[in-house]
Amino acid sequence: MNRNIGLWKSIDWITILLYLLMITAGWFSICGASYEFDNAGIFDPSGRPGTQLVWIVLSLALIFVILMLDADFYDTYGYLIYGGVILLLVATIFLAPDIKGSRSWLVIGPIRMQPAEFAKFSTALALGKLVNSYGFVLTKGANFLKALMLIFLPMILILLQKETGSALVYLAFFLVLYREGMTGYILLLGVCAVVFFVTTMKFADVLVGDTPLGLLLVPLIILGTTLILLFVERRNWRSIQYIAGGASLSFLIGYLLSFAMPVNYAYISIGVLVVSALYLMIFSLIRRVSHYALIGLFALGSLGFMFSVGHVFNEILEPHQQIRIKVLLGLADDPTGAGYNVNQSKIAIGSGGFFGKGFLNGTQTKLKYVPEQDTDFIFCTVGEEQGFVGSTAVVILFGIFILRLIYLAERQKSSFRRVYGYSVASIILFHLVINIGMVTGITPVIGIPLPFFSYGGSSLWGFTILLFIFLRLDAARVERM
């Protein structure tokens, strides 16, 4: 009895209050998105609002079970839980029916479950347990590879289910690894890959004179990044001057030649980049300083990535993924196909104005103009019914929630709890940014829910388990002081 009283006193009620606010706001949003006046009432379990309400009530029961378990249970059985979920993901690949092109839902009678939603908390547990193991240092190559294996295994299995959006969520764990000592250059590589891919795709077919603009811009961006890395790592002003001076001279010569003959400046930018990379690698051998060689390899690798973009886009990505990227980058106009969801979502959000149309008064949502408006596109319902004020309030609420999770994670005494806490914050942040980004047309539509708002039992329970395991771990910190 005393133990239970101590638990309820030590639990973080601020986070629980934020959770309750979000699931309540989410339920009202689902009502606005799916309620039909001439059919079942909002509390009728045959309708989506009623079904979501049942899942919310069951989530509260699930919370009680999670909190009643001893905090050591999650540490002790972290790997076992992870292994069980991995087996479930493998089974899903072979047993799940094909639903809208993916095999990610296990159907058992009237129950439908998406194991990918539960793999997040199990991966967070396993990663926390790994980092907390005796003598673990993330900067050691073998340890870093172990961490990557824990992250990429469920990610690959989910990709095999053709659930690209759910798989990409696991990239959020790299924020956790960065907190635990991973070099920031790995995050830089990810950002550079996105920039290089987008720039190459956006300007691939744009010609300025005889020069393909994409093949000109990307090598110049790589060269600029190389010079920045050279400054940050070694502050070798002489090498910086040599490279920048050589590049300027090369383009000057090209400009002078253009008066006599056609000049493709892309060849000049590529040539300058290759020569600069080779210079850094030779300089590294002479000075016996590996940093120069690594920067040179970055330049050459980035150049190779640029030339592989076309192959990756045309041969690896699915046709529906290709058209979504083209629509996002303005390379194609498909208002009745791939661009339909986003266009209708923008119309719904814009029609809400500053204060919104009011609860159950959204015309775009009531007339079902926005597909998936109560799941992946739930935020457009918030925008239409509650307007700019309501949308901003939701974003602020999520911001406070994530900052609170980071605060809780930082006060943990063990690596296991800190890593798990940062995993929770990172996953929710990733979902928030990508979901709102795709609803507003900033990011591609990859089909991931808005935490605690989107309709669905698997999503709600997955996030609830993810969150309340952390709150149970945090409560144990106080119980044992």
Description:
- With 481 residues, the protein is mostly helical.
- The protein has two domains: 2-182 and 327-479, no CATH class; 206-316, no CATH class.
- Helices cover 72% and strands 2% of the residues.
- The chain contains 20 helices and four strands.
- A hairpin with a 2-residue loop joins strand 3 and strand 4.
- The chain is globular.
- The model has no long low-confidence stretch (mean pLDDT 88).
Task: Note the topology.
Elements: H1 2-10, H2 13-34, H3 48-68, H4 71-76, H5 78-95, E1 106-108, E2 111-113, H6 115-131, H7 141-160, H8 164-168, H9 173-179, H10 184-203, E3 207-208, E4 211-212, H11 213-233, H12 237-257, H13 265-287, H14 290-316, H15 319-328, H16 340-351, H17 363-366, H18 378-410, H19 415-439, H20 457-479
Helix pairs in contact: 1-20, 2-3, 2-18, 3-20, 5-6, 5-7, 6-7, 6-19, 6-20, 9-19, 10-11, 10-14, 11-13, 11-14, 12-13, 13-14, 16-18, 18-19, 19-20
List keywords for this structure.
2 domains; two-stranded antiparallel sheet; 481 residues; globular; 2% strand; mainly alpha; two-stranded antiparallel ribbon
Describe the structure concisely for a colleague.
Helices cover 72% and strands 2% of the residues. The chain has helices spanning 2-10, 13-34, 48-68, 71-76, 78-95, 115-131, 141-160, 164-168, 173-179, 184-203, 213-233, 237-257, 265-287, 290-316, 319-328, 340-351, 363-366, 378-410, 415-439, 457-479, and strands at residues 106-108, 111-113, 207-208, 211-212.
In N-to-C order, the SSE pattern is HHHHHEEHHHHHEEHHHHHHHHHH
Biggest pleated-sheet summary: 2 strands, antiparallel
Q: What order do the strands of the largest sheet run in, or round the barrel if closed? A: 1-2
Structural class estimated from helices and strands = mainly alpha
Mean model confidence by pLDDT: 88
User: What percent of residues are in strands?
Assistant: under 5%
Helix percent reads over 70%
Annotation, overall tally of beta strands: 4
> Number of helical runs?
20
In the predicted model, the low-confidence regions spanning at least 5 consecutive residues are: none
Taking the alpha carbons of the first and last residues, their distance comes to 18 Å
Overall morphology:
globular
Tally of individual domains:
2
Oligomer: single chain
Radius of gyration: 26 Å
